[in-house]
What we know:
Layout: E1 2-5, H1 15-19, E2 24-26, E3 32-34, H2 44-53, E4 59-62
Antiparallel strand pairs: 1-4, 2-3
Amino acid sequence: MRIKADFELCESNAICVGMAPDVFDLDDDDYLVILQEEVPADRVEELRQVVASCPKSALSLEE
């Protein structure tokens, strides 16, 4: 499973960064960076919650 971002929708609210800072970060220009696209099996539920928390629905999980 992989995490994806629609950078056209993303407003860099950084909610995902706060919830999973080892997976998401903002660069020097405040653009979202996905640090770890592959989702470990033991973190799928956690990252589903992060995806659901995105206010712009810019994040998704793909099988």
